């Protein structure tokens, strides 16, 4: 038997379980078996799950380890970063602000938030909170403008938005945007003359008794029951956790399966938790109503799993005839999902300490099959076959040896170095390195190899070495023999981002 599978099976006996509804024991055994096997198949160290039905939490438990070295198990109170699932909290706060008469979500946001400036004056005057909540502003993602940055005050990111080029006209195309939710979380605090961190704690965490939930990782006690980040490369390795607390309501919440079960109870029960109204009347239906189309494609493999739209933050689809709302989250080393079926009063939380874990997609579907008494689809095997096919077509990259570089740029390599800046992205430093250049953009490092003229190819420089792939070509511009700027395709949906010499 696989060693990890054995560990998980043995550990399962002692893992904390908080469950109700004793009649479903056989179904829980099916779920235990599925999760344990899938964790082994996907080399996952730890997972927490909660299942809500109507007003009750019918299951909340953990599998595997949050800290393998010290044999600390995951349980229902283990804290995980939930990344973009945080956006649903920002949606809830905006609904509350409208109920309190502080904003109208269908009116231009600039009226309430003059500091919020988009790329053009016309966009600034037209974009509403509903546009931002449903990712239909036309703004490009520009995720590299925050991904490698750390611990900036909110005004830094807020100012960057104005200089980020849109990729489409307003309300014409879907484009997921972290920056729009960051801006909304800043606004929500300003509407109540406080901060987003304090507001989400007062308005949501406390009323829902989410006692182990935090607005950012900086609030966590060093001895907290928190999951460590693991990577699997032939064996498990613990890696430093890198969280983006400065993204606020776009991705900074840390929570537990047990606490998020309370959160889903509120969404399932029309905004009410333990007979106390938290969300405004009717806001749940408004949030899960389709506001924009995400994908017009048809699921040929599963024709009864159709349409993909977005409401106010929540992604909407039909799962085998059951209306589904969900949001996934992924941040370096952790992935999560909060899913609910509003017309079936079913909610599912899955939290993992693995980057882009397949189980945040596999487990909710498996649970739905069990609860809806449907023939279970073996999606795990299908996912594994897809992974094998991909791995079979992918060879291990051969790392770049800088000493073998023979190409030269038009000018001496030193002429390309310096400090550069783009108002929408921040600062970049370029230095010489042997016959190449090294570009440092906060926590990102790229090796730039001459291709002739003023063009260089880019190559990721990670801990393991320099990889053959990068973000694309970098092109420098000169005037009278002096470098003035360079451009790089940081955002693929718009023109190359131009950094100017300082």
Short overview:
With 502 residues, this protein is an alpha+beta fold. Helices cover 26% and strands 27% of the residues. It has three domains: 3-90 and 193-392, DD-peptidase/beta-lactamase superfamily (Beta-lactamase); 103-191, no CATH class; 402-501, Lipocalin (Beta Barrel), CATH 2.40.128.
Structure commentary:
With about 500 residues, the chain is of the alpha+beta class. The chain folds into three domains: about 5-90 and about 195-390, DD-peptidase/beta-lactamase superfamily (Beta-lactamase), CATH 3.40.710.10; about 105-190, no CATH class; about 400-500, Lipocalin, CATH 2.40.128. The chain has 13 helices and 25 strands. It has helices at about 5-10, 25-40, 85-100, 120-125, 130-135, 145, 155-160, 180-190, 195-205, 255-270, 285, 360-370, 380-390; strands at about 15-20, 45-55, 55-65, 70-75, 80, 230, 235-240, 255, 270-275, 275, 290-295, 305-310, 315-320, 320-330, 335-340, 345-350, 420, 425-435, 435-440, 445-450, 455-460, 465, 475-480, 480-490, 495-500. Strands 1, 2, 3, 4, 11, 12, 13, 14, 15 and 16 form a ten-stranded antiparallel β-sheet that branches. Strands 17-18-19-20-21-23-24-25 form an eight-stranded antiparallel barrel. A two-stranded antiparallel sheet has the order 5-8. A hairpin with a 2-residue loop joins strand 21 (about 455-460) and strand 22. It is globular, with a radius of gyration of 24 Å. The relative contact order is 0.13.
């Amino acid at each position: 038997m696989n060693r990890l599978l054995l560990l998980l099976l043995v550990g399962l006996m002692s893992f904390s379980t908080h469950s109700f509804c004793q009649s479903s024991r056989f179904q829980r055994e099916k779920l235990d078996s599925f999760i344990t096997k899938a964790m082994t198949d996907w080399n996952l160290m730890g997972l927490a799950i909660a299942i809500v039905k109507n007003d009750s939490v019918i299951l909340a438990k953990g599998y595997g380890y949050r800290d393998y070295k010290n044999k600390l198990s995951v349980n229902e109170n283990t804290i995980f970063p939930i990344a973009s699932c945080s956006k649903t909290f920002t949606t809830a706060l905006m609904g509350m602000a409208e109920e309190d008469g502080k904003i109208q979500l269908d009116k231009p946001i600039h009226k309430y938030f003059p500091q919020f400036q988009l790329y053009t004056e016309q966009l600034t005057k037209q974009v509403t909170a509903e546009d931002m909540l449903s990712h239909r502003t036309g703004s490009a993602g520009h995720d590299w403008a925050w991904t490698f940055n750390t611990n900036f005050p909110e005004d830094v990111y807020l100012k960057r938005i104005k200089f980020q080029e849109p990729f489409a006209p307003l309300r014409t195309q879907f484009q997921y945007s972290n920056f729009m939710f960051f801006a909304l979380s800043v606004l929500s605090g300003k509407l109540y003359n406080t901060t987003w961190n304090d507001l989400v704690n007062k308005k949501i965490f406390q009323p829902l008794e989410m006692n182990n939930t935090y607005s950012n990782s900086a609030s966590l006690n060093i001895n907290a029951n928190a999951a460590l980040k693991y990577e699997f490369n032939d064996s498990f390795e613990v890696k430093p956790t890198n969280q983006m607390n400065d993204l606020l309501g776009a991705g900074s919440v840390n929570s537990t399966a047990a606490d998020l079960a309370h959160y889903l109870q509120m969404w399932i029960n029309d905004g009410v938790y333990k007979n106390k109204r938290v969300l405004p009347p009717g806001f749940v239906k408004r949030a899960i109503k389709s506001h924009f189309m995400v994908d017009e494609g048809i699921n040929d493999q599963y024709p009864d799993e159709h349409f993909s739209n977005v409401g106010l933050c929540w992604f909407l689809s039909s799962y085998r005839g059951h209306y589904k709302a969900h949001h996934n989250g992924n941040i370096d080393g952790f992935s999560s999902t909060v899913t609910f079926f509003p017309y079936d009063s079913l909610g599912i939380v899955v939290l993992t300490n693995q980057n882009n874990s397949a189980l945040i997609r596999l487990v909710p579907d498996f649970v739905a099959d069990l609860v809806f008494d449907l023939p279970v689809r073996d999606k795990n095997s299908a996912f594994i076959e897809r992974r094998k096919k991909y791995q079979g077509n992918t060879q291990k990259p051969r790392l770049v040896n800088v000493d073998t570089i023979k190409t030269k740029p038009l000018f001496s390599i030193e002429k390309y170095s310096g400090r550069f800046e783009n108002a929408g992205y921040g600062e970049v430093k370029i230095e010489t390195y042997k016959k190449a250049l090294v570009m440092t953009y906060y926590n990102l490092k790229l090796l730039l190899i001459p291709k002739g003229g003023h063009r260089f190819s880019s190559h990721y420089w990670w801990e393991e070495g320099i990889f053959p792939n990068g973000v694309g070509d970098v092109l420098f511009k000169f005037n009278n023999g002096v470098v003035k700027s360079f451009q790089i395709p940081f955002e693929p949906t718009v023109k190359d981002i131009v950094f100017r010499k300082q």
